[in-house]
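lol ok so funny story. i was supposed to be doing the assay writeup but got distracted and ended up predicting the structure for this chain instead. priorities right. anyway since i did it might as well share w the group, maybe its usefull for someone
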Amino acid sequence: MREQLRKHKQYLLTGVSYVVPFIACGGILLAISFAFAPMTSSGPDLSQSPILKMIADIGGAAFGLYLPVLAGFISFAIAGRPGLVPGMIGGYLCGVDLDGVPGGPEAKAGFLGAIVIGLIAGHFVSLFKYLPSHSFIRPILPILIIPVVSSIVVGLLMLKYIGSPIAELMAWMDESLKNLEKGNALVLAAVLGGMIAFDMGGPVNKAAFFFGATMLQNGNPSIMGPIAAAICTPPLGLGLATLLRRKLWTENERESGYAALGMGMMGITEGAIPFAVVDPFRVIPCIMLGSMSAAVAAMQFGVADHAPHGGPIVLPVVDNKIMFVVAILIGMAVTATSMIAVKSIGRRAGETT
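and the output, tada:
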């Protein structure tokens, strides 16, 4: 059992090693375009600068590739080159709205879906190694038969079995958030903060974000304020953790920490993904706790955000600016200290076994 866990951790590490440059490239390019664009009530205004718009488009393209690359190379780590095609197709389907029939459900499986479908694709392709094949067919197996058959299977799983449950879950969460909005504001802030951090740009994150954006459109910026603080906390908190206790992290993780700090400043939650993919069971609870703390603090301090975005970059359009910064610092501190604590405990447990 332990050996299987070790192997699967290595599969995830392989996917991360290939996807980090895409996330870093996309995040930096988006950050540059946002930093120099004027901030309006509807977000960064790129309409007056073709160059900034082009930079943002390129950054968006890099971000658009991270799900296929992550799933594809997780599958590659398991099954070799034949696993790339079904893994990347499955990863691509994790990032698009899936509506197989007119008026049908929409689903985005996001980063967590990419991990799951990458593992499924890789193990499915590996099954072909145990199937008998004629010498005439064997040369075309890895370049034709395996990609076609496995892509059909992976695609059907996403379109028919994974997409609909996620769509139903998103609808349920949206209705639940509307009910919470009528009740305790601090409970709502905690729930939204946890959702923002949970899948770092995936469907749960987007459900919380679009709820805040809808409230903003309806003239209520007080919901977007806590969300804006929660958005940047995961990458900033993890980046801070890599600076405070460098010995707990690998060289690659320390480099990802620098990138995470830059992406967090620009409100890009996906900067935490390289850490979460490698160690999801420890990282995700820690960043959720940090984002919940930041969101609750922002709500308590009366922070309001007039732009549908987050992080320090939206400071010019935030009400109660000092408390917004304080809320982010609280979230960073909670994320970093909890992450360092669980990493330290894990290291000591490893040394005693």
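The two ends are 16 Å apart (CA to CA). The first strand starts at residue 39 and ends at 40.
back to the writeup now i swear
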